[in-house]
Write a structure and sequence with these properties.
Elements (H helix, E strand, L loop, with lengths): L1 H38 L2 H8 L22 H15 L5
């Protein structure tokens, strides 16, 4: 029990350090955003300050570091279709 009481201040200090790093990162991002908006022409600033709640398109592509494997998607689809045709489904 005494070991836990001795560890609590160290743990709390660690949490505070992580929280301050998070705050510093967020503050930096807000300052950069405000600087970018201030660099815009006056007629675009009002539009830039409006939040964009538009969802991402469902068909967007996710870019990767390696090129796609030819025929991989079709192979996966045929394997899935064959599995469901046999009636073998995970429960």
């Amino acid at each position: 029990m005494l070991a836990h009481r001795a560890a609590v201040p160290c743990w709390t200090c660690g949490l505070l350090i992580v929280h301050r790093e998070w705050q510093r990162d967020l503050t930096t991002k807000i300052k950069l955003m405000e600087a970018a908006i201030a660099a815009l022409p006056e007629e675009l600033r009002a539009a830039a300050r409006q939040p964009d709640y538009e969802p991402f398109p469902a068909s967007r592509q996710m870019w990767t570091l390696t090129p796609p494997i030819p025929g991989f998607q079709e192979q996966q689809q045929t394997a899935t279709a064959a599995t469901f045709a046999k009636g073998n489904r995970r429960r």
